[in-house]
Design goal:
The chain is of the alpha/beta class. It is built from 12 helices and 8 strands. The longest helix has 25 residues.
């Protein structure tokens, strides 16, 4: 992390950017990928891409920005469908207010759910009427402001300092902010409020004891190594387009993303069943990933 912080700060300085990289925040978004790609070409004097998440004018893919959030919701939808439920009509809690959270909220509401929370590093919003995605994008993507501005523009919203997203009674919880943000007490509160499913949109947002408690309580729990794979998957789709010198439409990429996420769910579900741990999607994800690597190694003579 320290190396990345230093590297990005030096890169900003080299190109004369007028924005410092915030302490503790690597700050890698579309703009930073552009800087990195430009410096790669300058140093290597070749064009072939090694970075994904590029701008659309130089090899990027439509739907890459939305991919992790959309993918999370596609997998959650399939999870519920396979347990004779639907996402439509469910109340959802989402943490975070970055790309993953914003587009998870957007897709969940497109599919008929009502998302009532979001958060940033200083506080969180509860909006009983459902998060206004257009307003959230204005606050976070355009103004790059705090959620207090969302509250100021939205009479139905409550703003609270600190933590608290998981205290709201919801059917589905989607942690999309940061590592270790859903603690054991949060898990207990979610279970007490009748949560059905928790699917991770961030990297390891649920602590081990909270994960165990959710599973022991019968909550459908899918770890981020499966449920937040949509971003990486769409990076692979970006690489495919680069290799073929093609640019797919948003709808083409989105359709492929949905297929990938549905297949991921079924892969981890089948692995959990095959090894006698039906419904344990943490084990299913670990086993499915291990078997994929093992099979490839065996096919190549364990070299």
């Amino acid at each position: 992390m320290a190396f990345c912080q230093s590297f990005m700060t030096e890169l900003y300085r080299h190109i004369g950017a007028d924005t410092d990289v915030p302490a503790g925040d690597i700050g890698v978004g579309g703009r930073e990928i552009g800087y990195l790609y430009g410096q790669y070409k300058r140093i290597r004097n070749i064009y072939e891409g090694v970075l994904t998440g590029k701008g659309l004018t130089y090899g990027g893919s439509l739907a890459r920005t939305q991919a992790t959030g959309y993918g999370l919701v596609y997998l959650t939808e399939e999870l519920l469908k396979c347990h004779d439920m639907t996402l439509a009509g469910k109340t959802v809690a989402v943490s975070g207010a970055g790309n993953v959270a914003i587009y998870a909220i957007e897709k969940a509401q497109q599919l008929g759910a009502k998302v009532v929370t979001c958060s940033d590093s200083t506080g969180w919003i509860y909006d009983s009427e459902g998060i206004d995605v257009a307003l959230l994008k204005e606050v976070k993507e355009v103004k790059r402001a705090r959620l207090t501005e969302y509250k100021a523009a939205r009479p139905s919203a409550e703003y609270h300092e600190g933590r608290g997203v998981w205290s709201i009674k919801v059917d589905v919880a989607l942690p999309c902010a940061t590592q270790n943000e859903l603690l054991i007490d949060d898990a207990k509160q979610l279970v007490a409020n009748g949560v059905i499913a928790v699917c991770e949109g961030a990297n390891m947002p649920t602590t081990l004891d909270a994960t165990q408690y959710l599973q022991d309580s019968g909550v459908l729990f899918v770890p981020g190594k499966a449920s937040n794979a949509g971003g990486v998957a769409t990076s692979a789709l970006e690489m495919s387009q680069n290799s073929e010198r093609l640019s797919w439409t948003f709808e083409e990429v989105d359709s492929k993303l949905k297929t990938i996420m549905v297949n991921i769910y079924h892969n981890i579900d089948e692995a959990s069943k095959q090894y006698g741990m039906e419904g344990n999607y943490v084990a299913g994800a670990n086993i499915a990933g291990f078997l994929k690597v093992l099979n490839a190694m065996e096919a190549q003579g364990i070299v």
